[in-house]
Queue: 3 jobs
Job 1
Amino acid sequence: MAQTTASAIDVHTWSTPNGWKIPIMLEECGLPYRVVPVNIGKGEQMAPDFLAISPNNKIPAIVDPDGPGGAPISVFESGAILQYLGRKTGSLYPTDERARVAVDEWLFWQVGGFGPMLGQAHHFRIYAKEKIPYAVERYTEETKRLYGVLDRRLHGREYLAGDYSIADIATLTWAKFHDKQGVDVATYSNVARWLELLLARPAVQRGLAAI
């Protein structure tokens, strides 16, 4: 539903695992939005205008012209944005406290561990100018451990925390690139099944194509 309207949410983002989370969420919620590309390869995340809405110079960040009380609001950090959009729309983020705690646990597991460790595996396996065997082994093995955690959680479950939620969206965009992380997802059958299920969702496909 990427479009240009006065009420559209501006999504400052780029084509990275964190960057795709928000277009997917907005597609799932049916909210109008505009993608504002922030080319991190060219250092555009360091521009003063972007710093004003994302103090840590990281994508994604949003500006919602229809924030709380009808006033604009900017939000940075992908987990915080997902929670904000879930509260705003009542979608993919339960209001029941026990159910919300379960979603928050797995959301924070992703933003605090699954994403950063997989990101380090990406870096040292593919992008580092110098191949450091210790770093490659350290982060690849930790990545595999985390996939094991994810696989056990998905045993007997369709989604991470009850119904499909922001926790699934946050984790999906990283797990999609398992091959770059040195992971054969076929060895994690529950993860493989979950990935196939989520990637078949039309809103997920539209969100991935939005950047």
Note: The domain at 9-92 is CATH 3.40.30.10 (Glutaredoxin).
Job 2
Amino acid sequence: MYSIIVVPPPTTEDERNPAQIRLAPGERLTFGRSETDNDLHITHDGVSRRAGEITAQGAFWILSNLSREQTYVVENPEGAGEHVKVAPGRLDAPVPFEFSRIVLPAAGDLLALQVWAPRHDYLTGTGGLDGATTAPAFSLDRTKRYFAVLAALCEPRLRGTPHAPLPTVDQVADRLRPTWPAASRTSVQWNIDYLAVKLRLKPGPDSADTGPRLNGKKESLVSLALRFDLVREDDLAVLAGSPGRVTR
């Protein structure tokens, strides 16, 4: 079973249909400027003759930087700026992202190799342990209005780009009005404040210290929700439900 998919930097011939190289666990892919010494030939004078090596390791992959001077950056295009730097000569650096972009500095250009790790391995069975069940890390009821507010805040980044601007409070109210006719700026802001307390981004009113309010509240909520999968793309169905589906 293939576990790693590599998409080389596009050329004029394959910009519309980029090539894909699939690696099974244990297989390696070397890349660089030398046409005879590498599995993937990159035709750029700024790329080392033997630039690097990608190795499939089950459900993830590792990167070796075989250049002498260039640091490679592995970016997470689906994240919020997460990246891993692989120094010159570094071998077997593990990459934690499911979808990655290896950026190669090349004499004034930045070349990118895209790498997917689509294979997922999961634990099977519960193990038959006795005792009380583990308390959930975040207790959210997907039928409540506060969850619809959270879903509306996350929607641009789930449907668009990782750095898409967040909707304003008024835009959230407009988005929810088909399923929540009474949605208003005041009611949406109340639910945002409630979420900040419920998700422990700020203390409740009984224990809050006097001082400035939480800055970037919407950004903090969305960052937490997307980081821990509290809202997934299929949860956006609550925004298109029939009136009365979302409750108080």
Note: Residues 59 and 124 are 16 Å apart (CA to CA).
Job 3
Amino acid sequence: MKIIVTDTPGQAFQRAADMIAEEIRGSGAPVLGLATGRTMESIYQLLVRDHDAGTLDFSGTMSFNLDEYVGLPPTDPNSYSHYMQEHLFSHVNMPAGQGHVPNGVAADLDAECARYEAAIRAAGGLGLQLLGIGETGHIGFNEPPSAFDSRTRVVHLDDVTRRQNSAMFGDDPERVPERALTMGVGTILEARRLVLVAVGEGKAAIVDEALNGPISEAVSATAIRLHDDATVILDEAAARIWRR
């Protein structure tokens, strides 16, 4: 596992964007695993800037997002499908239908999870998977405990996660859906390359646990230490405890 520590959050975002751009340029048919959240917004802004400058072509790119809330249609401003349209898909030349997000309003959620897994396989598997880390140590919405061989499935969100994500729901954790669809840890680990990005003092403790603590299904982010090609990008604040 490679760990990169930058002086500022902006430098961390740039390193991640550069790695994604390298993946897109270096593959004839790149398949990206994408994530959401405030950290990812900054990364996507940099990718859109490169696209606007004519240096990054998304026309051959396919993507699969990690997760989606159960019960939120793509038109809901709090859905991750809407997030991806707002922050990336509507700004680049990725053809419609090549950016995939789980369907949180599918009539049969288990069938939707199986369909999503099949779509990833049909695309040839994930190339680069972008990851954040939540306060419970989750990657995707793989709340503790999550088996390291788990696949895309329906999960119940931890109260900690619902509080963490409540800003988009009027700071009311009760408005955050109780369930989500998420790629499993096993699905994530099958990606050829993992890139986890964390910035800020608030991530320092869980980053230290993920990188220095026992590899455990109680902290799904520890699973990346089992991967052959994982890069963790941190700013100084997020790396503070880990570097002691």
Note: The radius of gyration is 17 Å.
